[in-house]
Amino acid sequence: MQVTVTEIGNILTRSSGFLRTVSSHSAQPYRGCPFGNALCGAGCYVRHNGHVTRGRAWGSFLEVRGNAAASYRAAVDRERRWARRVRGAFSIFLSSSTEPFPPQEARYGITGRLLEAMAEEPPDLLIVQTHSHQVTRYRDLLHDLQRRCRLRVHLSIETDRERLPGLPPHASGVAARFGAAADLKASGIETVITVAPLLPIADPEGFFSRIAASADAVVIDHYIGGDGSANGSRTERPSLPAAMAAVDPDSVGLAYRDRMVRIAERHLPGRVGINIDGFAARYS
CA–CA separation, 268 vs 207, rounded Å? Predict the structure, then answer.
């Protein structure tokens, strides 16, 4: 993987498209993702975003935005005023196009410094989206942010299977992520497990029971519609749907998602979100 240190003009991007009803802004402490060659990378919608990849293979590069915290401090007053005037609230989704807690975070600390800057000048709402159990390293900082703004941590757990034949392993194991979710919830941080994209589940009743014990809510998002195309055509390009079908042919259709939603609602009544409504905390 090629790792470079760069600078960003404005770390706060005004949300549009999929995120428009979720947050006023998104923030990406890195460009690219070292998880691109893991299981989550196989279903990652960003791999099809030419603006991000610039012709590079997803998982082959990581741009470290060394001035992310300084950029936030420089932009926050202007962006807060705009968001409250135009969107009604200043809310940030961290992050939609990269993993905020990659292994390189231990060396560069970009996300940590950005969270510290947000604690100094907090948004009205911060949503932290991650695939990594390493989020727990920032538990104290997240508690500080929670005292200053509304905070939700979204932790992706797409399946209860540790491996899917024909696909790479998880970047962060299923058990490790469940442990992290339970840790955050027990410490008083609002925790949401995002089953996104939904992959074949071996034991649906057990899976959603485990989610109910480990998180405050669940979001279920199928690649059909969830990848930004009407029929999942972006995700059809790589090998993910074929690998899903080999495990469970039903899993590649929206009827499978709807069946999982019904099971989830038995375990988490009133706390199940579907697709974009779930990411915005609009639950059934």
Answer: 12
* Structure-model confidence comparison of residues 169 and 228, the more confident one: 169
Domain boundaries, the chain: 2-277
Q: Closest Cα to residue 220, out of 124, 147, 133, 156? A: 156
- Dihedral of alpha carbons 38, 42, 46, 50, sign: positive
CATH code linked to domain 2-277:
3.80.30.30
Phi-psi region of 281 (alpha: psi -120 to 50; beta: other; left: phi over 0): left
Helices within 38-156 (DSSP H only): 39-42, 50-53, 68-86, 105-108, 110-120, 139-148
236: pLDDT strictly greater than 50? no
Beta bridge partners of 67: none
- pTM (2 d.p.): 0.94
Please tell me the least confidently modeled range out of 14-18, 114-118, 238-242, 243-247.
Answer: 238-242
Mean pLDDT score, 75-89: 98
Could you tell me which of 76, 81, 97, 78 has the C-alpha nearest to residue 32?
97
CA–CA gap between residue 137 and residue 215 (Å, rounded): 18
- Dihedral sign for Cα 231, 233, 238, 239, please: positive
For tokens 């940590």, what's the residue?
Answer: 112
Decide: 92 and 123 in contact? Cβ < 8 Å.
yes
Cα dihedral 138/275/272/267 (nearest 10): -90
Range 144-163 average pLDDT: 97
Q: Is 101 helix (H, G, I), strand (E, B) or coil?
A: coil
**Beta 150-156 vs 125-130: how paired, if at all?**
parallel
The C-alpha atoms of residue 57 and residue 2 are separated, in whole angstroms, by 11
* Residue-by-residue DSSP string for 137-156: GGHHHHHHHHHHSEEEEEEE
